[in-house]
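Example record

The entry below shows one chain as it appears in the dataset: sequence first, then structure tokens.
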Amino acid sequence: MPKIEIMPSILAADMGNLEQACRDCESAGADQIHVDVMDGVFVPNISMGPAAVAMADKATELPLDVHLMLIQPQNHIEAFAKAGSDSILIHIEADCDVEDTLKKIRGLGCRSGITLNPDTPAEAIFQCLEKGSADEVLVMSVHPGFGGQKYIEAAEGKLAEIRRRWPEMPLSIDGGIDSETVKAAAAHGANLFVAGTSLFSASDLTSAVAEMRANAEADYGIKL
């Protein structure tokens, strides 16, 4: 299975000092930076645009994992690719031709990702994965739109189902991830952990990243 990676979500960082937050994540030993993009339509909130990605691209050498919570992501992926995204993730629930949009993401030189909301069954993305259209899967363990929500345990079954079928697929989880919930998510096969509030509210970011990684590695795959 692919290696464990910790991905701080800068949505939870100090909005007045995002550039420094990105540098702090790199210094703390994070593996990637996660950028949450919301349009106020697909989810009930608005956050970040291509300019935030461009800022992060200048501030850090870490890969930028850009999560588009947009109703029509196909209209915006070129701008996010040009801004410096390394991976661009869209939702299976979006109003777009998912296969075509994933191909377009790859055509712009980025890794493609497909995302599932909590109420969407794992089977909804199987066709994408069988066709090899996605380079990464993101399972939401909260309803997208706001940070600081409680982890939804039902996501674990979807993680395990996807991991058993695609053992080498980079499999991400986002929502309510902290040093405790990361254990169960890892046990069910997640290897990429998006964490915002728990990391940026920690007294020491380096220690928080290290603890999350250690807890994930200790339980990785034991429920499969």
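Notes for this example: The chain has a mean pLDDT of 96. The first strand starts at residue 5 and ends at 8.
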